[in-house]
Design brief:
Structural class: mainly alpha
Shape: globular
Low-confidence stretches: none
Strand order of the largest sheet: 1-2
Radius of gyration: 19 Å
Distance between the termini: 52 Å
């Protein structure tokens, strides 16, 4: 497993460098505007290196039968998202077509998984939920698709400062690899391959970034991480809560910001730079924000997820505990407020 991690990591580093040269030669650049957090034109689309190196890792796992053919097909459902993202990085694709691909990919993945796993809730609500799910099991598809498409989009929203998206992918996938090792070694190896691919890209994306991930990477990673969390939850229900806790920084910032914009009457689907992390980056710089995210992940979210993993009865309490200070933080950063409303 460690040898494969090293191979995928090296491949990701090399591919990212090659894709950067390609982007520079083809002028595939992210040009700064009033919504940008960077000041210089920067190559984009480097997330393709994550997609390709992770695909090689999955092929190696499948070749030695460490994962099933069903798992390979579930993971392959993420590829159309990467393809549409690749074309969007080169020339804008209308949002309706991107959303269609995202929704279809999520539904196909759920179909291959035989539906969303039963949402496990500790007693005394577990019996009530089980009865509801048995009567309305078809709800698993729209609920699961909504969750996956939101994961995909929030990851795209949060990919706005150097290193933040690659770091989140590395953190969440590495933690999931540890939690799922005993119930499902194949899933653990898959998650570890993703962490290796993300780490290889991060070598180029660390502040100041030499290349950006682009939609080809952010959409792919958002859907893939959502699927890995659901796959882990099929083995142990508590891992759904662990995954949601680990993903807390992205979930809270993106969800709070979107809800604030909707409730305040703003054009919520319009591009903006009012997420909490973007406000922080403008005040303190990219590196300070990235290091703060790593600090929150390692010192706050990881220990709480471990507590929940070891004590499943605390799952709901742990989730609320993990999210509460993050909500306070994005509120203090005035996430969602338009620039004209800031003091």
């Amino acid at each position: 497993m460690l040898l494969q991690f090293f191979l995928v990591f090296v491949l990701s580093v090399v591919l990212t460098g090659l894709i950067r040269n390609y982007a520079l030669s083809r002028k595939v650049l992210d040009i700064p505007n009033q919504r940008s957090s960077h000041s210089l034109p920067t190559p984009r689309g480097g997330g393709l290196a994550i997609v390709l190196s992770f695909a090689v890792g999955v092929a190696l796992l499948a070749g030695r039968q460490a994962i099933s053919a069903q798992t390979v097909w579930i993971l392959a459902a993420c590829l159309p998202v990467a393809v549409i993202g690749f074309f969007d990085d080169h020339s804008h694709i209308p949002a309706r077509w991107r959303f269609l691909i995202h929704a279809v990919s999520a539904l196909v993945a759920l179909y291959l998984m035989h539906g969303m796993p039963l949402l496990w809730i500790p007693a005394p609500l577990d019996g009530w939920l089980h009865r509801l799910w048995m009567d309305w099991h078809w709800l698993g598809y729209p609920v699961g698709a909504f969750l996956l498409v939101w994961f995909l989009n929030l990851f795209n929203f949060m990919d706005g400062t150097d290193g933040i998206a690659a770091s989140e992918a590395l953190f969440v996938s590495a933690a999931l690899a540890g939690y799922s090792y005993f119930p499902d070694p194949g899933l653990a190896a898959t998650a570890l391959s993703l962490s290796a691919a993300a780490l290889g890209f991060l070598c180029w994306n660390w502040p100041k970034a030499k290349i950006f991930m682009g939609d080809v990477g952010s959409g792919f990673l958002g859907l893939l991480l959502g699927l890995l969390i659901l796959c882990a939850a099929r083995q142990a229900g508590v891992l759904l809560y662990c995954g949601l806790i680990l993903f807390g920084l992205f979930i809270v910032d993106a969800s709070y910001t979107l809800l604030y914009r909707m409730l305040s009457g703003q054009v919520w689907h319009q591009a903006h730079c009012s997420h909490g992390y973007q406000r922080a980056a403008k005040r303190y710089g990219h590196l300070a924000v990235l290091l703060s995210c790593w600090g929150i992940n390692l010192a706050w979210l990881l220990p709480i997820s471990l507590l929940v993993f070891l004590n499943p009865s605390y799952a709901l309490a742990g989730l609320l505990l993990a999210y509460s200070p993050l909500l306070v933080l994005v509120r203090l950063l005035e996430a969602g407020r338009p620039e004209t409303a800031l003091p």
